[in-house]
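Lecture 7 notes: from sequence to structure.

We start with a single chain of 96 residues. Read the sequence below before looking at the structure.
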Amino acid sequence: MHYFETPCQCGFGMPSARKSAFEEPYIEIIERLVARRREMGMSQADLGAAFGEDQPFISRLERRQRKIDVWEFVQLCRILKVEPGSLLKDLGQAGQ
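Now the structure, written as tokens:
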């Protein structure tokens, strides 16, 4: 039996996988990063070089084909000269 097929001893099953890359708050985070990159006049290639990756890597992030982890988010914010908290402020409250 595989690990994921083993029922939890606590009486609860494994939680279902989340698709946060397709949820509005995550989309909004990516849109804010893209807007900031453009505001600074940076291309995807410029951001990729500063981040230590290539342009296709940044493209995958911006098209939500690859999720950004917390540390990558912080690094991108540093490169884009923006406080991580300011990009997260009022997240998910558009139209409220």
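The chain is about 50% helix and 0% strand. Keep this in mind for problem set 3.
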